[in-house]
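[step 3/7] fold_predict: job queued, chain A
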Amino acid sequence: MSDVQKRIDDLVKSNHVVLFMKGTAQFPQCGFSGRAIQVLKACGAKDLTTVNVLEDDGIRQGIKDYANWPTIPQLYVNGEFVGGSDIMMEMYEAGELQPLIGA
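[step 4/7] structure written:
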């Protein structure tokens, strides 16, 4: 496992809810990341860790390899990959994301 993969693995496994996104929760820098934050806020996420992939090219590419998922944002809950913003929205609308987040 590379250093970048190890850093990602540590982040995912040591935090309850982790969102790898473009920008920050306060200032998302793409529409999909913004929508992901809105969905998480609507779920009442309190224990949320965000990682701005624009600050680290290694993480930006490494996270795509980590989950074998080509797009950002990516949500992880309890160390497990959940999906991107479309999947988050579908799960939220179906009432499946809220209990996962723990709201």
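[step 5/7] annotate
The first strand starts at residue 17 and ends at 21.
The CA atoms of residues 5 and 65 lie 8 Å apart.
exit 0
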